[in-house]
Design a protein that fits this description.
Blueprint lengths: L4 H12 L4 H8 L3 H8 L7 H11 L2 H17 L13 H52 L10 H11 L1
Length: 163
């Protein structure tokens, strides 16, 4: 394999975070050699690793977009196979066309799934924001002067009490 869009994206994340490959590998709980192979495009990052990277290196406000970018890069990182169709038999050509169609369908499904996951992440984030607004309204209704000093855990407790 050659350097892929996904490998470039992952390396950019590491460089932007100003950390070494060894530090990133340790944070992600993978071996340095594995991260090196991913950055060189020799192996692909699986979906679980992409989720860990997003949750580790991106704040909640941009996590959904980062996840979508990495998932699209992952689907774009599939190796290209080339050969001369003229050298194949009719049966081989037909098999290749069927295989190509199957790959394209899988790619469409993967992109649709990634889009659905991004939509779900955005909906979850919107629900959390709405809950925080409701908690803040409860706090204001109770005339608590220190509403801005509450921790997230305290806000969660107030939300549970309000429900």
């Amino acid at each position: 394999m050659a350097i892929t869009r996904l490998s470039k994206e992952l390396k950019k994340i590491r460089i932007d975070a100003e950390i070494t490959r060894a530090e990133m590998a340790k944070t992600l709980k993978i071996r340095d050699k594995v991260l090196e192979q991913i950055e060189l495009g020799k192996i692909d990052a699986d979906d679980g690793l992409i989720r860990i990277i997003v949750s580790t290196y991106f704040d909640e406000a941009i996590a959904a977009d980062a996840y979508a970018t990495l998932k699209c890069a992952q689907s774009d990182s599939v190796a290209v196979i080339s050969f001369l169709m003229s050298e194949l038999t009719q049966s081989q050509r037909q098999s290749i066309i069927i295989l190509k169609d199957a790959f394209e369908e899988q790619n469409r499904e993967a992109k649709a799934l990634a889009a659905a996951e991004v939509k779900k992440l955005k909906e979850d984030r919107a629900a959390k924001r709405k809950s925080l607004v409701e908690v803040k309204e409860v706090v204001e209704d109770q005339e608590v002067d220190q509403a801005d000093n509450l921790t997230l855990a305290q806000l969660d407790d107030l939300l549970d009490q309000a429900a």
